């Protein structure tokens, strides 16, 4: 394993949602409040698109070109060439302070995504499943800052986080898409940092980014800590395995809320990094709709 390598000093307000595109050999990632979608090709190319609103995530589609994207208050179909956004579903219009935050696709091609209180004040965020027919189903609620869904190797366990509670939860995934038996998988202290985005490796361990924790931690399937990899930034947000062998780990970060003095100590806040994880990841799943 190696130290973090700077890939793109994008100075993102909130870098998030890294997505490995096998078919494009590229990493897509968002700057939520910068209203940007970035693309980093493994050939070193960089490209960015300005979005009309906050953008939390994009996922690829199995049978169609382009993406499905999570904006502040809506899910939309997105293509980049030609550039087109078609709204598919409005979200939580009666909760004006809520916004979409993080998402992941399961092996059945369903999108699991959460919402959060943008001011991170109250437990008004919810957790949803979006099926391939674009029907939306609320599966849980009570989150201040919902984050980082990921899955066990067999897809029967779903992991989801409330960053403000410093906890990662486990759910059993039923055959009809319901989730049951919510329990705490791992807890963190303020000194360790708040669990943010995460992904699962080929050994069934979770790689969890720690907001204000300057690091990524690898958790074993029983929730115990295996090892920690430091980064040169405090607000580590999300990660994805990439490359033909899925042996490269790309990591996003944020600079929002940092003072001028703090930015002097971490000038690369908001950058995209790469680390050598020493293990391989799982293939990126695509939305079946």
TrEMBL record:
<dbReference type="Pfam" id="PF08450">
    <property type="entry name" value="SGL"/>
</dbReference>
<keyword id="KW-0378">Hydrolase</keyword>
<comment type="similarity">
    <text>Belongs to the SMP-30/CGR1 family.</text>
</comment>
<dbReference type="InterPro" id="IPR005511">
    <property type="entry name" value="SMP-30"/>
</dbReference>
<feature type="domain" description="SMP-30/Gluconolactonase/LRE-like region">
    <location>
        <begin position="14"/>
        <end position="255"/>
    </location>
</feature>
<dbReference type="InterPro" id="IPR013658">
    <property type="entry name" value="SGL"/>
</dbReference>
<dbReference type="GO" id="GO:0016787">
    <property type="term" value="F:hydrolase activity"/>
</dbReference>
<dbReference type="InterPro" id="IPR011042">
    <property type="entry name" value="6-blade_b-propeller_TolB-like"/>
</dbReference>
<protein>
    <submittedName>
        <fullName>SMP-30/gluconolactonase/LRE family protein</fullName>
        <ecNumber>3.1.1.99</ecNumber>
    </submittedName>
</protein>
